Amino acid sequence: DVLLDKKTHWRILSGDDILLKLAEYYQPRQCIFLTSVPGILQSNGNVIEEFYVGESKIDELDHQSSIIDVTGSMQNKVMIACAIVNKLDTCQVFIVQGVSKNAKHLLSSSINDDEEFILNGSTRILKKH
């Protein structure tokens, strides 16, 4: 999305950045990043199903994760997802392929406060307790 800006005249505003602000304000029980890939990918192409904040290094993600489109990169999504998990203990955060059974399941289900979703082939961002 393009915004007018008094300093630079225009800039790109990523939906990922908006999600962080919305999560801080509304404090949801889950946030979902829909992407063109199943989740955070390892160099061998497998999905990292559990990415732990602070334990996993964002800058060591697979090179495909650093490819930038106009609104950011997978690294940016992961940084924002980690910020949400750090700020909201009760929020579950997922990185899921947009056209997938996992996305449909997450978007059509209601989560109880004590229920945890575990999805194969997608990434869940977690904080070590």
From TrEMBL:
Residues 9-96 form the Aspartate/glutamate/uridylate kinase domain. InterPro entries: AceGlu_kinase-like_sf, Asp/Glu/Uridylate_kinase. It comes from the Eukaryota. This is Aspartate/glutamate/uridylate kinase domain-containing protein. It comes from Rotaria socialis.
